[in-house]
Design a protein that fits this description.
There is one protein chain. The protein has seven helices and 14 strands. The chain is of the alpha/beta class. It folds into two domains: about 140 residues, NAD(P)-binding Rossmann-like Domain (Rossmann fold, 3-Layer(aba) Sandwich); about 150 residues, 2-Layer Sandwich (Dihydrodipicolinate Reductase, domain 2), CATH 3.30.360.10. The chain has an eight-stranded mixed β-sheet with strand order 8-9-10-7-11-12-13-14, covered by helices on one side. A six-stranded parallel β-sheet has the order 3-2-1-4-5-6, with helices on both faces. Strand 11 and strand 12 form a beta hairpin.
Amino acid sequence: MTIKPVSVALIGFGYWGKKCMDTIAHIPGLDVNYLVTSQVFPDTQFPTTTLYRHWEQLLTVPGLEGVVIAAPSDVHYEIAKEFIKKQIPVFIEKPMTLSVQQAEELVVLAKKYQSKVVVDHILLFSPAFNAFSDFLTQHVNDIEKIDMFSGKWKPYPEEISVLWEWAPHEIAMIFSLFSSDLDIKNVQSTSRKFKSTYGQSIELEGLVNHIPISCHWSNLRKKPLRRIVVALNSGTLIFDDKCDQKVVFKDFAGKVTPIQFDPLSALDLALTRFKHVISSQIVDFSDVELGCKVVKTISFIETFLDH
């Protein structure tokens, strides 16, 4: 018997939307039957996909089983809430929203309508990060300090926030690694103005589970970087998402031991999970609650920068 593929819509066809489309094309049993984009394409480019100009047109589409929201962050809330109220599962790119009030409302709506929400904190789906996390779980009492670094060279126009662009990854990873809250002690930043753009470097210091932790975000780095360095009482554990050997342990004698993990795509795993969430009878609110917690934390960090 042939099983009917899960029918989803993709909202947004920028850089990340295109990656979602390409990834879904290789996931058995998941089809993008509807695409919302302002771009114009020849009819032959997406022969099995109906194109819409406005996401509201999807609200009356019969048989729609899920929505992937890859639109800009400032419209996540208004799009997601309408599909949540119709009990259509949503997959939302990070950050879930750009305000605490909006994030809290999505949690309330998801629970009220028993709707499924998956938030794509993409690194939480990374096999390399999960191998790193498993190692730390086994050595949690040995941790002395954690330093997190991310960014690349990409000056932004004034309306784009460096903090909101980069911090959701690290904040989500912190909450994934530890069940305790992030106790923020200090936040500092330096900025550099260009003709029509700006760059900013942000440094956060705090504690998590009584462990000293620092986060360093910048859109002025010469090379792309996403790295976590954990000082243990037996050596150093490193997660580096931008190199081939993504997870290694280095002991005090200098011996480097690679940590093995499955070479699977994080986005493939994230969207495959969304397919299973759609088909499942279970409604789990952990993703939308984590998304809200991340938004609250970044909003709190922002108050330090405002001062």
